[in-house]
Design a protein that fits this description.
By secondary structure, the protein is of the alpha/beta class. It has 10 helices and 8 strands. Helix 1 packs across helix 2, helix 2 packs antiparallel against helix 9 and helix 3 packs parallel to helix 4.
Length: 278
């Protein structure tokens, strides 16, 4: 998440946490859409306005978490990945990355990265006594700082394959291609990237119009937020080996009998991809 206000930046050790209760937080809004309780009135008001535009958005958010869980399981079982870097992790929620990874492999290691003050507070508290999961208070848009963070250098062995998670976060990154490239350059062959990103075809069609309406509403609270075209999202996984079924919308990832979203609704607005570094 971009550091455009005091709620989104690393906290220095010599200063108290000060959370701006007058502005919605991306981490808290996402948590609220998942049914969480770590939110404030400003977040609840914003979500109510968003649901008037896109009532399916809560289910879309839950299905995004379902997809992330599926990606972690596939990385663990098919790719033998046992260490994960969850960038822009947000608040602890149901189906946390470490919960899923440790079920697949009790020896797995997870490092969460976020710079939202609420996420930092709750994340550090949750993981205080966890021997396999760690939290780095850093901005994912600064790969050098993230990769040099003691929680990352102390927990992950970057000479071995890593599973990099970027779930619904890059739409807040102004220029995500070099950011993703820097993370991929830091990990070896056999590493994976799990990505979800909002789509706006920008072709004048019905889906583009719907996407633009949601995008503009989100920009009321989060000015840096930007949905992207399929070609722009595809650039983020260029040069990687896409795991079947490839770069697809969320309604196309699972067989129809396992699909929980309206096939013509908001699920088409989220592209997902699991890709391996060759």
């Amino acid at each position: 998440m971009p550091e455009h206000d005091d709620a989104h930046r690393p906290l220095r050790a010599d200063e108290p946490a000060t959370i701006d209760l007058e502005r919605a937080s991306q981490a808290r809004v996402y948590d609220l859409l998942l049914g969480g309780k770590n939110n404030f009135e400003v977040d609840r008001q914003f979500v109510q306005e968003l649901l008037k535009i896109a009532p399916e958005i809560s289910e879309l958010t839950r299905q995004n978490r379902r997809w992330v869980a599926d990606a972690i399981n596939r990385m663990s079982t098919e790719g033998r990945i046992d260490q994960f870097l969850d960038l822009g992790a947000g608040l602890p929620t149901a189906q946390n990355t470490h919960d899923i990874a440790l079920r697949a492999n009790p020896a797995a290691t997870v490092v969460y990265v976020d710079n939202d003050l609420t996420a930092i507070s709750h994340g550090q508290a949750l993981l205080a006594d966890d021997q396999h999961s760690f939290f780095a208070d850093a901005d994912l848009n600064d790969p050098a700082a993230v990769l040099a963070h003691p929680s990352v250098t102390g927990a992950l062995d970057l000479s071995r394959p890593v599973g990099i998670l970027l779930g619904l976060v890059l739409h807040s990154t102004p220029d995500p291609v070099p950011v993703v490239a820097d993370y991929l350059a830091a990990v070896p062959s056999g590493s994976y990237l799990a990505l979800t990103h909002p789509l706006n075809p920008r072709d004048g069609g019905r889906l583009a119009e719907f996407s633009t309406t949601i995008e503009e509403k989100l920009q009321d609270a989060f000015p840096h937020m930007q949905f992207r075209t399929r070609d722009e999202i595809a650039e983020l996984v260029a040069g990687l080996e896409l795991v079947a079924p490839g770069l697809v919308d969320l309604t196309s990832w699972w067989p129809e009998d396992e699909q929980k979203l309206n096939l013509t609704g908001a699920g088409q607005l989220l592209l997902v991809a699991l890709a391996r570094k060759p």
